[in-house]
Amino acid sequence: MEQGIAYELILKPGERVLDIGGYDGGSALSFAKLVGNSGEVHTFEPHPVHYLKLCVSVRDVPYITPHCIAMSNRKGTTLFYSDLDFSNPKTALASTIVADLANYDRLGEKIVAMKVETTSIDYFCKENFYIPDFIKVDVEGAENLVFEGSLEILEKIKPTFFFECSFLSTQRAQLAHLPQLIQYEYELYLVNIMYCWGKWTNDFLWNKNKLTRLSLSDIEAATNTSSPDITTNLLAVHKSKLKDCPIFNQCEISDYKTFYKELLKEKP
I want to staple 163 with a disulfide (CB 3.0 to 4.6 A). Which of 2, 124, 137, 245 is the partner? Predict the structure, then answer.
C-alpha cells in the first residue's frame, strides 16, 4: 500500500501528530492537510540545514510547529552524525544519533559529529500537555531509543505509529522495539517494501491494495540472518483502536514462507 494512502485511511480532522524525522517538511505538510486547522502537527528535525528547509516549507501553516531537536530516550544532548556534504542526495537522509551506524557506507567519507539537543516522546508530551493520536518515526536506526522514551505514552494513550523498519544485516540490533510493541498489545502491519535485494524500488509493493498483519514469528523470521535485506514501512496500531478503521478488518494475515518466496522472485 502506498504510504500516502495509509495516512489518508488513518488520520482524521482534528487529530494531533508527532512527525519525528521531519527532513524538509514533506511529511508534516501531508499530515497537516489531513488533520486540518483543528489538528496539530509537531515536527522534529535535528539536522540544522534540513531544519531550515523544513521551516521554510511549513512557514505558512500555523498549526505545524517545527523543532530543531532529536527524539531519543531522554531529554539532554547527544552527538548527531552526518555527511559534511549536506547536499549529497545519497547521504542526506542517513544522518543518525546511533554511533554504530555512523560509517562510510552510510554517510560518506567526510563524517561530521555535531552536538544536538534531545528529548523523548514522554518528556515532550508531559512538558507540553500533548496527547498524540499518530506518531511517525523515521530516525535512521534510533527507533529503539525513541520507543524506549515513549513507554508511558504507549501504555496510557496508545497512539498509532508509522515507522520505517530496516531488516538489514547491519541494523538488526536496532529492532528490539518490535516485540516490545507486540507486548503492549499493538498489531504490526506491513505497509510497503522500499528496499529489497540491494536496490530501492517503487515497483515491488507487496499486497498493493491491502495492509498485511505481521506476527511475532514473522518478525523473528525477518531478522534471521538467512533472510534478505529489506527496508519496509510498518504501522503499529493498538488492538483497542482497530475497530476505528475498516481497513484493518480487511487485512491479510501473513505467512512468512509465502512472503519469503515473493522476495525471492525479486532477487536479481
Answer: 137
Domain that holds residue 33: 3-265
If pLDDT is split at 50, 70 and 90, which confidence band does 165 have?
confident
Quote the CA–CA distance of 92 and 106 in Å, as a whole number: 10
Summarised one tens digit per residue, pLDDT across range 67-78 is 999 999 999 999
Q: In sequence order, which residues have a C-beta less than 8 Å from that of residue 84 and are 6 or more positions away?
A: 108, 110, 111, 112
Range list of H helices, the chain:
3-10, 26-35, 48-58, 104-107, 121-128, 143-148, 151-156, 177-183, 216-222, 256-265
Convert the pLDDT of each residue in 190-210 to its tens digit.
887 776 655 555 544 455 567
CA distance 119 to 225: 33
Instruction: Report the distance separating Cα 242 and Cα 10, nearest Å.
Output: 10
Q: What are phi and psi of 226, to 5 degrees?
A: -85, -10
What is the total count of domains within the chain?
1
